[in-house]
């Protein structure tokens, strides 16, 4: 289970890092939108924040890749997800609900809403389970097969759930 979770979180955060690196200008705009009105929204300050988030997410990927860093992976992944949930919560509280959360990597516009905060809180709780010590044993063929089936299944379920969160409900005609 922990290997599967580490692999799934590594993929999630690796995709996030790749997105930020490939679409840095768009992500700078997202950061600017999140920080608007906080007195720290000066243009040009997004670069260091972008670099810090990329470093944090890359650290999650690296920690997930090392079995000896499993607890660190759980703390980093859970903390990052809570940070993003907090940023969304603050913006919702400030009435900035039309903000694009940056969660879909510009595939679809996804406004910040409570379901995204709940999603991140749940993912964070799952990530924090990696901090619990577990015994080690040799993997059997069935274990490897289970992991190889679970990873794409989790990826597809996450993608489908995230896509469902982009819908605002039926549109009135």
Summarize the structure.
With 173 residues, the protein is mostly helical. It has six helices and no strands.
Set out the fold topology.
Elements: H1 2-22, H2 24-35, H3 46-65, H4 70-93, H5 114-128, H6 141-164
Helical percentage: 55-70%
What's the total number of strands? 0
Terminal-residue CA separation: 47 Å
The global form is globular
The helix tally amounts to 6
What is the subunit organization of this protein? single chain
Which series of helices and strands comes N to C? HHHHHH
Largest sheet: none
Walk me through what this model shows.
This protein is an all-alpha fold. It contains 6 helices and no strands. It has helices at residues 2-22, 24-35, 46-65, 70-93, 114-128, 141-164. Helix 1 (2-22) packs antiparallel against helix 3 (46-65). The radius of gyration is 17 Å and the shape is globular. The mean pLDDT is 84.
Q: Main traits of this protein?
A:
globular; mainly alpha; 173 residues
